[in-house]
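Re: the request from the purification team.
They wanted to know what the chain is likely to look like in 3D before they choose a buffer screen. I agreed to run a prediction and write the result into the notebook, where they can find it.
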Amino acid sequence: MAPDLETALLRAFVSSVRSGSISRAAAALGHSQPALSNQLRRLERTVGQQLLHRGTAGVSLTTSGEVFLPYAERILALSAQALAAAAPTVTGHCGVGLMEDFVTPALVGALSDFSSLHPGAKLELVTGPGPLMKQSLADGRIQLALCDPFYLAQTPRWTARLPLVWSAAPALDVRQDPLPLVLFSQPCRWRAPLFDALEAAGRRWEVTFESTALGAVQAAVRAGLGATALLPANVEPQTATDALPPLPEVDIALVRPTGTVGDPLLDAVEDLVRRLTDVVASTD
């Protein structure tokens, strides 16, 4: 009989890949580094293949790891989705506002599958910066918003602190002065922590590319136009780097209008989003 894949081991693997470092992944998951390393070894024994190259500069995917990664991400997303799907059948309309950093294939795929499992429920996804989320809530277009709490007038239902990590193409010399940066266009409150980290380390910088779109930022990084700071889930394989000053964590929060607690559809979608936020934070 073929062995089963444990979700805890998959989460350890995906988190290590996205952060580019076992130590950073261990911190994000609340584990010790030896415990996480043991989980990775257990997963590789289960799979029967080496999935990660380990070195002083961090971890990178083997050829087998590159094939295995999307399956691991999908299993984690499906696990969160299955728990939400076990809830009673729900109906109605729910608008969900997401900052673009959270529009990952795992999250969008899980929300799409949620709609398929609950044909009486209609989900509308709205992505954009914080001010758009605030206005969409006020207009009633969305009932749930996940974004920087700075932009939200309501008291959050819950908050989470997520790590930012550096992303740079392997060909980019991150020692160059000034350091070229690829950034999200304003308004983006995560630019300031990035600048502060560089200035505290005595590094000069210059902005070489800006965009409001995550895909454009990732493409610019792949092209070697500069380094950027992203949530772990959005750092593409082989672009994570430990060679730049450590970055702080950032806050995200979920809000929904008062008086909606107990709504079966909103409760189910909120639960799914929260579970997937944990995945984003660690792949995240």
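For the purification team: The longest strand covers residues 92-98.
Please add any questions underneath this entry.
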